[in-house]
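Archive entry. Fields below.
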Amino acid sequence: MTQSLIEQIGIDYPIIQGAMSWVATPSLAAAVSNAGGLGMLGSGHEPSEVIRKAIKETKEMTDKPFGVNVLLLSPYVDDVVDVVCEENIKVVTTGAGTPGKYMKRFKEAGVTVIPVVASVALARRMEKEGADAIICEGMEAGGHIGKLTTMTLVPQVVDAVDIPVIVAGGIADGRGMAAAMFLGAAAVQLGTRFVVAHESIAHDTFKQRIIKARDIDTVVTGQITGHPVRVLRNKLTREYLKVEKEMSSDEHPDFSRLEALAKGALRKAVVEGDKHGGSFMAGQIAGLVNKEQSCHDIIQELMSEYDELVSHPKIF
Amino acid sequence: MTTFEQIQEIIVDQLDKEESEVQLDTNFRDELEADSLDLFQIINDIEDEFDIKIESEEGLNTVKDLVEYVEKQQEA
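PREDICTED_STRUCTURE:
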């Protein structure tokens, strides 16, 4: 199964870079693909022409396959899907909804469709809709998260579907990768570790916050809104969680106060490096990420750690 | 059991509600505090229970919507 998925995509190693908002730009995606993994471009809420430009830029930097993450909630989603198909993108990952409506179009264009899921029911639904594989993401991950941990979610999803499962959430080294493979993964997706790559455009403040982060330094905001998000804690998250707590007793909470706090916070983190006001999305594994490296070195290190573990397993 | 009763049971089980809280005109998204994972679980369970396929959850908001969808699928 592992071979067939990475062969189908045409990559050397079963390592996918997460499509982190504002961070998954052409320079990072191209570097990951050039290093033998699968680079991903984020599309967020950008209009299709911005995405076409990013795709063209990426193509100038790599002749290897790379993918695009399509945010199904985006107001421009129809046009984005057209651009992705026209530009012969090989892999699409999807978030925030079900891609069923676009499945026929993707298949006709030869796109491998990989939705992100956070439960068994959602995984089964995606398989029925014709997904080629799924990314199963545990709540250890940074950014928008579900409820289950990677350790518990993955084996249950692996048992429930017949398509390859890519594991995300909590992986930053060869040990995590090996663990995921033993749980049944066909590949792994890493986000936080690639935020600190040399080729990542994330502001140095963001990179340093991840490098200095310890195990307990992420918090989950937005539980009350039904859209929980994992971020590194700072002044913004303290204020945000305080407002959430105040609202928890309201029968009809007014989320506009929270929206005002969060407005533009992601850009402030990634682009401006605003230490106090930015939303620094990172996974719980940030504590393990302690150096800035090239994507090539990250992938080679992961693979050598992984190979060492699986060829010389420590038997108790 | 009627279609409504079967669907009511699925929702009651998934969301830990009382039967009285799950009526035909209940909006299961807003009134029952179902999050998106609950929603897909309910759809999944209905698909299994009635051996049908729910193409899209768009437009399905109330318990009545679900009952009508299922009955239409079964006639087809």
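CURATOR_NOTE: The mean pLDDT of chain A is 93.
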